[in-house]
Amino acid sequence: MRLSRYFIPILKETPAEAQIVSHRLMLRAGMIRQASAGIYSWLPLGYKALRKIEAIVHDEQQKAGAIPVLMPTIQSADLWRESGRYDAYGPEMLRIKDRHDRDMLYGPTNEEQITEIAGAGIRSYRDLPTILYHIQWKFRDEVRPRFGIMRGREFLMKDGYSFDIDKAGATHSYNRMFVSYLRTFERMGLKAVPMRADSGPIGGDMTHEFLILADTGESAVFLDSDIADLSLGADKIDWEDAEGLQGIVDRWTSAYARTDETHEEAVFNAEVPEARRVTARGIEVGHIFYFGTKYSEAMNAKVAGPEGSPVAFESGSYGIGVSRLVGAIIEANHDDKGMIWPEAVAPFEVAVINLKQGDAEADAACESLYDNLNARGFDALYDDRNERAGSKFATIDLIGVPWKLIVGPRGLKEGVVELVNRRTGEAVNLSPDEALNRLSAQFGRA
RNA sequence: CGGGCUAUAGCGCAGCUUGGUAGCGCGUUCGUCUGGGGGACGAAAGGUCGUAGGUUCAAAUCCUGCUAGCCCGACCA
User: Fold this and answer.
1) Residue A85 CA to B67 C1' — how many Å?
2) Nucleotide nearest to A327 (CA to C1')
3) What whole-number distance in Å separates Cα of residue A384 and Cα of residue A386?
4) Which nucleotide lies nearest residue A153, CA to C1'?
5) Potential cystine with A148: which of A23, A255, A274, A353 (Cβ 3.0-4.6 Å)?
C-alpha cells in the first residue's frame, strides 16, 4: 500500500474522550471512528488489524478440530424463551420488533441458536464430538461502554460450542479449546494466562478466563510467576490425544492464577512462595466453560445414545473477544511513540520510508524495494508522501509497523538502506537485496 | 443504574462570570524556500456555537426542557 493513496486519518492530538492508551492510539492512528456510544466503525488500518487477528483465530480453531459456521446476528425471541433466558438476560439484551410485531433480538451470544442447530442436525452419538464455532458481531447493551473497542456494546466475538455424549468427551473438547487458546494467543505474540474463573450457578472447576497481562488491564490478577513463564512453543499438538491434552491443561492450571473475582489471599500465600507471587493487571480476552446439559435439556436437544435412547448433549462454550484483542494487543505492545505490532498480527509488516521524495535515485530504490516486498508476499507500506523525514518516522512509528526500511540519498551513495526494528530500535545498514533477504528470513518467507 | 462533568471549525481549546463583529493552536489548501526524527515564511478556506423553546432591541453568553458524549462506581468477550 502506498501511504499517499491510503485512507488513514491520523490525528496529531489526542481526542479528549480517550482515556486508555489503546483507545488513544487507535483514534490517533485512524483505525476506528466512534459511531455512537460503544459502537465503532473500523477504518482501513483498524479493519486490517482486526482481520489478521480473526484469521489466526480461524486457523487455530480449525487446527484444534472446530468447524466454522456463521449464525445470524438477529435471533428470534422464541428461541430464547425455550431456554428461559429471554426473561433472565435483562436489559443488556437489545430487543427489537420486526414489521409483524414479532419479538426479535440482536444476539449477545449464541448458545440457544447453536443448540437448536446441533439438536436438529446431529442424530447419533457416533457423530460426536462436534465443535462448531463462528466469528460474528455481538451486541450487549452495556450500561457503561468505555475504553473504545475494549468495552464496546457491539463487538466481534469468536464463540464456539462443543457437543459430546458424556462428561469425558466434554472434558476432551474443553481441553482442546483450552490448548487451542494457548496457541492462539501465543501466536499473536501475547502472554495470556488461564485463570480459574467463577463458575457461577453451574459449579465445577471447568471454566477459565484467559487474561493478557497489561498495566492498564481492568482486572486485578494474582499469579505464580511460574505460570507466566510457561510456553507451548513449537510443540506439535495431538488433538485426538485426550490424555496428552489433559497433561498440558494440568501443567497450565497447577500453579495459582486467579482474578480478583476468585482470588483467595490465604490460599495464594500458602501455595506460592513469596518470591513468585505476582500481583498484576489483566485484560480478559477469552473465556471457556463447560455447562453440561444446561441448554440441551432446556431445549430438548438430544442424540441417540449407545443404547438407542435419546441423550442430552454435554456442552461447553468458548469465547474469544476478537475485536477486544485489537485493543489488548496494543495495550500490551506500545511505547511513547505509538503502537508496536507483533509481526504475526501487524496490519503492515514492513514500511519503506523514502527520506527524500522526488529524488530520482531514492524514488527508484523505494519503488524497487516496495515491488520486491509485495512479490515476496509482505504486507508492505510505502511512505511515498511528500513529507519530511521526521513526519514520516512519526507516522510509521505511531502505526507501529514492526520493521522500517529507510531509504535516502546518503545511504544509497554507499549502496545501503537502513533496516530498523520498531521494538528494539536496532538498526543495520544493508544492501537492498540483503535487507529483503533478512526480512524474508525473519518472517519465514522464502 | 447511583455520583461527577462536558457539548463552540476535522482535532485540542479560549470566549460565557459582567449579553453587543466567533477567536487561538494543530491539521487542511495554495505558493516559495527546504529536506536523515512531527521544518520556516506568506496567503487562504473552513463554524446551524448539540437541540427545542423562553427572556431581551440584541443570546455562544441568561433561564427551562430535551438529546448526545465522557469520567468514577456496581456488571461484562
Assistant:
1) 32
2) B77
3) 6
4) B76
5) A23
In the structure, how far is the CA atom of residue A423 from the C1' atom of nucleotide B33, in angstroms? 36
In this structure, are residues A268 and A277 in contact, taking their beta carbons and an 8 Å threshold? yes
Check residue A431 and give left, alpha or beta (phi > 0: left; psi -120 to 50: alpha).
beta
Determine contact, residues A207/A195, Cβ cutoff 8 Å. no
**Is the Cβ–Cβ distance between A197 and A289 less than 8 Å?**
yes
Domains of chain A by range and CATH?
Answer: 3-71+110-338 (3.30.930.10), 348-442 (3.40.50.800)
**Alpha-carbon radius of gyration of chain A:** 24
Summarised one tens digit per residue, pLDDT across range A136-149 is 999 999 888 888 89
Alpha helix positions (H), A30-132 = 44-63, 77-83, 85-88, 111-121
Q: Is the pLDDT of residue A381 over 70?
A: yes
ipTM: 0.92
Whether A220 has a pLDDT exceeding 90, the answer reads no
Q: Which nucleotides of B are covered by protein (CB under 7 A)?
A: 1-2, 10-13, 25-27, 34-39, 68-77
**How far, in Å, CA of A363 to CA of A357, rounded?**
6
Find the nucleotide nearest A418 (Cα to C1′).
Answer: B36
Protein-to-nucleotide distance from the CA of A300 to the C1' of B51, whole angstroms: 52
**Which nt has its C1' nearest the CA of A218?**
B76
Q: What is the pLDDT of residues A290-304, one digit of tens each?
A: 999 988 988 889 999
